[in-house]
Amino acid sequence: MILSKTMRRLTCLLCLSLILFGGMGCSEEKTPPLSRPPLVGAYYYLWYPGNWREGYINGRLKPQQLPALGQYDSSDPRVIEQHIAWASRYGIDFWAVSWWPDQPESDRIITQGILKAKNIQDIRFCIFYESGGLGLEKDRITFRGETSRKMLSDFKTLAQKYFSHPSYLKIQGRPVVILYLTRTFVGDYEKTLYLLRKEIRESGFDLFLIGDEIFWYVMRSPHLPPSSRPERKRIRWFDAITAYNLYNWSKTAHMGYGERSTFLSESRDLFLSYRAAGGNKVPLIPAVFPGYNDRGVRLSENHPVIPRQFSPGGEEGGFFREALKRLALPFLDPSLPMVLITSFNEWNEGTQIEPTQTGGATEEDYSPSGREYTQGFLYRGYGERYLTILQETFYSVAGRVQEEGGGNPLSGVKIKVAKGKKVLMETQSDTFGYFRVSRWSLSPDSYVLQAEKAGYHPHSAVVRVEGGKLTTVNILLKPTHIASGQGHRTVER
User: pTM here?
Assistant: First the structure.
């Protein structure tokens, strides 16, 4: 995430005062049993085209590997609608939309762009409150009179503008807000959070606050040095905790290929420590990223790279696949099964999963040496690869419903999955006819998939669910005014 120069120095200042703890093993945990499918969220940014000019690794490559939509404008309705379409098709349930205090452009894009998108009903969203905008002093956000008043005022604005929208993400009827950098909160933050909940409750909303608490070091007070242990006193103020991004350039053993580094094993241990700190009262929401390279925007800071391949010569997206397997799935909380992806489109730090234009592989860049931006790691024009990995991880069946003959996508088609006469789950197709079935809804077996829409003949197909595999189903529905009979199907594995 692009922040002020003060924020960019946070890691440097803190690492001078800490001896950071290492990993405690690399044994894997199994995915816990869940009573309902997990929610998949991704951080979403509104700061383009301005941030293209800041620089990003894909734009520094030789040749460039640009976004599939080019260097777009975040306020362009066509861009927003395509982003929603990708998210809906591949299984992102909600966006955590970046919102900065005192930046009215964010409000304008949300209200005039996202909320007016033709397919807004296909996704949910919540606010990712950029707390750094309250004023980051060296390495802390200190809550005092003006800081607290500003935060309370911001949340009243958010409640008025967004919390009542039908697509706003709610957990048990409570609007969700993710707070960035809560791990730096010191001063009178407890009173502020108390008043925040109280005043927003008086406005008719019971907030569900998720704190960005999980990191290698956290703040304890305005005067004490950072701590490598979870700050339980602060954690208890949140309904859940997460980690925006566990990248820490000072931990050199984390850098380079995931197969050779300690990043995943030590991140696992960190999650375990924070899960224990939250006990049974504050769920942990795991977060993962597909790789990290901010050299396109901060070359002078010389941060090392975590490449997108898990091993030398490995598959594109291998690190992302392993991170989902080792950090996301085992830490899904049965009481709040949710995972966050950093990010959908944070191109400046190279954490995006948004599609690129497809192209060949390169390790060359436009620096004098030809390697200063890439550090010699390989980059590919990966297309929709990362969205596909996400879909394969969380869904067992996916497909599209179209009209027979014309091929027009059919939205709002009711999709039922049955075993014998018992309907096990229901979903429906989105604006462009796509649907998906969570891997947690069906165990490996054969099922009958039933598609129904007014004005069309019903359709049935047998689908086979296999552990760890995605079955794709293309359904053609025949209009009732043409002829009787059932549409044919194509099943792919």
Answer: 0.92
Of the candidates 439, 258, 255, which has an alpha carbon nearest to the alpha carbon of residue 332? 439
Terminal CA-CA length for the chain? 38
The pLDDT value given to residue 482 = 63
| Residue that is last in its domain, among 383, 406, 426 | 383
* 355, two tokens: 């599609």
Pick the closest to residue 476 from 464, 467, 463, 486 (CA basis). 486
pLDDT of 345 > 50? The answer is yes
Are 448 and 419 in contact by the 8 Å Cβ rule? The answer is: yes
Number of domains in the chain: 2
Does residue 388 belong to any structural domain of this protein?
no
Hey, what are 374's tokens?
Answer: 């890439």
pLDDT digits (tens, 9 = 90+) for 194-235: 999 999 999 999 999 999 999 999 998 888 899 999 999 999
Structure tokens at 196: 């925040």
Per-position b or e across 155-191, b if 16+ CB within 10 A of its CB = beebbeebbebebbbeeeeebbbbbbbbbbbbbebee
What value, to the nearest 5°, has the Cα angle with vertex 236 and ends 230 and 237? 120
Q: Which domain holds residue 302?
A: 5-383
Kindly give, in sequence order, each residue whose CB lies less than 8 Å from that of residue 288, ignoring residues fewer than 6 positions away. 320, 323, 324, 327, 328, 339, 340, 341, 342
